[in-house]
């Protein structure tokens, strides 16, 4: 591999800083859980009956990752760019068809993330039965804080909240996840061989809404940390 001759320089490895370490965590894939808090599912017009349906997922390219503290351009082709504050689960060991009771063994740690969304394009895709990529896989649209190592630790309960320009817009608790941390790892590992460096955005609580140029977002998850983002002008 190291002898390969490329036509142009390959893109840099997407990575995140790690609290307490000088080493960065290289990112493999970015998975996101859809509709994983009841009140958010209801505000999206799609309530979830856990007894009758399975969790679903979408992915975002690692190239969309931007670190907390950044100012990002308001993205093209949307008039309804939304924030979604989320707890991000960081996988540190490989696993496939992992039983829920062993799911903690795959956990490296956690981070605070924003799953930024072109809501207008996502809803068009949803109505027409098209893929969600244009609504979700957005340049600079996957915001993430430093990673906090908590190997093997399952977060069962923690406040999750987001302020926009100092006003609280989202406030809930990780205990309200429809599919909890163990269930997400167990279920996602039925579809994918999970790998170190996989990020799983675990879903957003209710209160999602649109941002405009100049907005400053600050989110936190109790016991994990903070994520901030400033919305710049369209580039
Ligand atoms: Mn989301």
Summarize the SSE layout with pairings.
Blueprint: E1 15-17, E2 24-26, E3 30-33, H1 38-43, E4 57-60, E5 65-67, E6 71-74, E7 81-83, E8 85-91, E9 107-115, E10 117-118, H2 119-128, H3 133-136, E11 142-144, E12 148-149, E13 159-164, E14 167-173, H4 181-191, E15 199-201, E16 209-210, E17 216-221, E18 225-234
Parallel strand pairs: 3-15, 5-11, 6-18
Antiparallel strand pairs: 1-2, 3-4, 7-10, 7-16, 8-9, 8-15, 9-11, 9-12, 13-14, 13-17, 17-18
The protein binds manganese (II) ion (MN).
Residues 32, 84, 86, 115, 201, 203-204 line the site of manganese (II) ion.
Written description of the protein model:
- This protein has helices at 38-43, 119-128, 133-136, 181-191; strands at 15-17, 24-26, 30-33, 57-60, 65-67, 71-74, 81-83, 85-91, 107-115, 117-118, 142-144, 148-149, 159-164, 167-173, 199-201, 209-210, 216-221, 225-234.
- The chain has 235 residues and is mainly beta.
- It has one domain (15-234): Fumarylacetoacetate hydrolase, domain 2 (Alpha-Beta Complex).
- The strands form four sheets. Strands 3, 4, 5, 8, 9, 11, 12 and 15 form an eight-stranded mixed β-sheet that branches.
- The longest helix has 11 residues, at 181-191.
- It is globular and about 40 Å long.
- The termini are far apart.
- Bound molecules: manganese (II) ion (MN).
- Manganese (II) ion binds next to loops.
């Amino acid at each position: 591999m190291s002898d390969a001759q490329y036509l142009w320089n390959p893109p840099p490895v997407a990575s995140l800083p790690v609290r307490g370490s000088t080493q960065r965590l290289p990112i493999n894939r970015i998975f996101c859980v859809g509709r994983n808090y009841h009140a958010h599912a209801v505000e999206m017009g799609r309530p979830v009956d856990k007894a009758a349906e399975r969790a679903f997922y979408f992915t975002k390219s690692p190239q969309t990752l931007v670190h907390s503290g950044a100012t990002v351009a308001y993205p093209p082709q949307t008039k309804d760019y939304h924030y979604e504050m989320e707890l991000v689960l960081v996988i540190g060991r490989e696993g496939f068809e992992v039983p829920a009771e062993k799911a903690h063994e795959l956990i490296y740690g956690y981070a605070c993330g924003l799953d930024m969304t072109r809501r207008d394009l996502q809803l068009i895709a949803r109505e027409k039965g098209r893929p969600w990529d244009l609504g979700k896989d957005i340049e600079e649209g996957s915001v993430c804080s430093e990673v906090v190592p908590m190997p093997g630790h399952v977060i069962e309960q923690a406040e999750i909240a987001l302020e926009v320009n100092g006003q609280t817009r989202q406030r809930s608790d990780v205990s309200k996840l429809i599919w909890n941390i163990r269930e997400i790892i167990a279920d996602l590992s039925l579809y994918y061989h999970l790998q170190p460096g996989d990020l799983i955005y675990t879903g957003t609580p209710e209160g999602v809404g649109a941002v405009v140029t100049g907005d400053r977002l600050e989110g936190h998850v109790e016991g994990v940390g903070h994520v901030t983002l400033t919305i710049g002008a369209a580039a």
